[in-house]
Amino acid sequence: MDSVLDIAKKIQTMEIRGAGTIARAAAGALKDYSQQLDEKSVKKFNTKISNAANILVATRPTAVSLPNAIRMVMGYTGDTVDEARTDLIRRADQFIESSKEATERIGAIGSRRIRDGDTIMTHCNSQAAISVIAQAHKAGKNINVIATESRPRRQGLLTIAQLNELGINTSLIVDSAVRYYMKDVDIVVVGADAVTANGSVINKIGTSQLAMAAHESRTNVIVAAETYKFSPRTLMGEMVEIEERDVSEVMDSEKLSGMLHVSVRNPAFDVTPSDYIDVICTEVGAISPEMSYIIIRDILGWDLQDMLDNEI
Ligand code: RUB
Asked: Which residues of 51-67 are buried (b: 16+ CB within 10 A; e: fewer)?
């Protein structure tokens, strides 16, 4: 169980971060754990795997990629421990492989929306969004990127390092400069932690402000999101939980101790309404946000009637 707890801790502390990377790490952790178990009874094997899955799912509440990935791996079957383990490993490998392919495919699809000479604004650090930008650059388009710092964890610094490595001209700005620079932006490209059944997108805090500024200036917003970021449970009316992280990410908590009338809030994500999104680029195509239910039903295989019948 140590390896599972180790990955769980790394996800919690954000050493492992970003919705796709989190999902692949969790699938990999279940695979590794299954290989360490020397249970003889399949029942005990299943119980241990299921406990590990619960620990991993509880690490971060917002990225729907995490429960979706775990669900895909947990669909394993087998009458013996060997059969169960083999099927689990196959499913984990399949998820990890297809998730990487999805990011590439999203890049190929999304990059067609980028024109030669475009200035792109991005937020936080999304591998799917960077795939779109990278493939536009690879196709020979002359592009510039404006990347936000993304307080409080400053994931924008990871983005500028990645884009620099690719040789893409990039400017770093503080989050509050988004509207100031929007006049220079041709297209906004961001990732997603979750997409709801009604086409809203949950992504790093500040995304909705950026999308609102883009909407105001008639600038298109592209969301790059693998289909496993779509949230089946929102079909049943559930809301995606917005993680609120520790105050210490925003300011030194000790400095706050004398301030009896002050509290610090630190939501990690926000919700961008579908009205502000032009297209969601998935690995199965560029869709309008209104088509999200079709992804949940036809690609992820969830059916509203089944969910109601089985009280999921
Ligand atoms: C990361 C974030 C990213 C999405 C998509 O938040 O909001 O935009 O997770 O990333 P955090 P990807 O740093 O809190 O995990 O496209 O890599 O899945």
From this structure: ebbebbbebbbbbbbbb
